[in-house]
Amino acid sequence: MENCIFCKIAAGEIPSNKAYEDDKILAFHDINPQAPVHIVVIPKAHMAAGMNDINAGNADMIAHIFQCIPRIAAEAKLENGYRVVCNCGADAGQTVFHIHFHILGGKKLDEAMA
Ligand code: 5GP
Ligand code: ZN
Fold first, then answer.
1. CATH of the domain at 42
2. Ligand 1: nearest atom to the Cα of 16
């Protein structure tokens, strides 16, 4: 999709520090990390703007992302645990409208989630 920063990252037009890649998804280190390890996982195709756009037609891709997250976390040495976050809409502070999931870890995270 034009002018979508994550489509540009997926296409290699904007460089990223990759953590994992396969034919369907890409995981890269966040440019503005909120934890010692902060990885963003995206589908390579712009298939959904966010959480509210998940449906039967794209649920397989979401399932694939969630199947890969434990492997991505293990490769990032998050053996003590990690948090997965999906910001949805204005109140959650969503800024990029290409569905993505944050993996946060590398320290004892704040027990308060909000
Ligand atoms: P959101 O707030 O939409 O859930 O998350 C978007 C995330 O993308 C933010 O954490 C932001 O730091 C990250 N981000 C935005 N632009 C870039 C970029 O060009 N490169 C990387 N690596 N991360 C980005
Ligand atoms: Zn996109």
1. 3.30.428.10
2. 22
